[in-house]
Amino acid sequence: MPHSQDTTPIVLTIAGSDSGGGAGIQADIKAISATGSYACSVITAITSQNTHGVSAIHPVPLEHIESQLDAVFSDLNIVAVKIGMLADADIIQLVARKLRQYTPKFLVIDPVMVATSGDLLLQQSAISTLKQELIPMADLLTPNLPEGAALVGKPVPQSEEEMGALIADLRALGAHSVLLKGGHLEQDANSNDLLIQPHSSELLRAKRHPTVNTHGTGCTLSSAIASYLAQGNRLHKAVYLGKQYISQAIAHADELSVGGGHGPVHHFFNGHVNVR
Which residues form the Pyridoxamine kinase/Phosphomethylpyrimidine kinase domain (predicted)? Predict the structure, then answer.
């Protein structure tokens, strides 16, 4: 039975395009679809990218980003918005202005600054604009350890204790909740994330799956969480479900053979797509 306009959970991803298909808009659409929601998109930048890295970034003109936002918001019942790569301060300011205009119910921000390959994806000058304009609007901010450290001006945590030491600084950024992702603590047997809410914090534990195919993990997790929020789950449950989804997508990543570098996670590990 088809969904009606009122019941289809629609998620908008505002992010950059990854020509290699493993991260960015492409990963977002796969994750939103695989977790049961309908994905629409606004592309902020076109990257020339593969499993080895980013070779070029072309920001989309502001007027076309604005026209994309107007097109989707004027017609689709967008419940949740996920924001990824925004490239520069002007794009961040435009997106913040349009979100204040359209007021979607949920906003998840993945502060994309550094690619898995180490390439810088957000201009340094834009980080302060992100902190001023967008982050205080977020229901959830999902930085990895280098991004979390960059946002608060502290060294990158090297342990779970050091992750905990960032709690007050991350709360002070103004987002309702923060999910500090511990995937970069590669010496640990688990890949644990720290969920920081207004009056509590909790370590979400997951087994670490050894694989080089982790391209797009941050995009995928934040999109899955936005998808689960759009379906009516409370924030804590949406984060828990998103964490389960990305853990399985990583666990099955080596079933795919894509590129010679950091390959993508397996978004459709449930068998929605025949990969053989």
Answer: 18-266
